[in-house]
Amino acid sequence: MKPYDSNRWYWIVGGDASQVFSSAAGSYVPVADAAYVAWLEDGSLPTQIDTMENLGEVLAVAKAPVPVDSAAKNAYIEAQAKRIETIVFRMLFNHENRIRELAGQQPVTQQQFINFVKSLL
Asked: What is the mean pLDDT of residues 73-86?
């Protein structure tokens, strides 16, 4: 069995074992695909995952190549967007407190900043 490599791995999505998702191909491949059959030869098994959205998140976190399959690509992009939003939030929170410090004001807590952002929506 080979070590996990998000760039060369296979998943069974939603329990449908009639095809597997290949991160190398960026889409589904048939279970008879030559590369998949060769990959299985050392006892490696595809990972079961419940939804394409969760697979997109796995691929995004692993920084795997962007999938070409439209559903996988949408899930990947959505997961990347959520990660970017988290990073941007942390940066803004940090900058808010730096500005407050320069202005001689008390820093805000993360919850106070979240409440402020919610009030903008």
From this structure: 83
Residue 36 neighbours by CB distance under 10 Å: 19
Instruction: State phi, psi for 41 to the nearest 5 degrees.
Output: -55, -30
Rounded to whole angstroms, the Cα distance separating 29 from 40 reads 14
Name the residue ranges covered by the structural domains of the chain. Answer: 10-120
Alpha helices (H) along 2-50: 34-40
10-13 and 47-49 strand pairing: parallel
Q: Is the separation of the CB atoms in 46 and 10 below 8 Å?
A: yes
Kindly report the pTM of this predicted structure.
0.68
Of 3 and 79, more confident: 3
Q: What's the angle, vertex CA 77, arms to CA 29 and CA 86, rounded to 5?
A: 140
The SS3 assignment for 107 reads: coil
Residue 19 and residue 30 in contact, taking contact as beta carbons nearer than 8 Å = yes
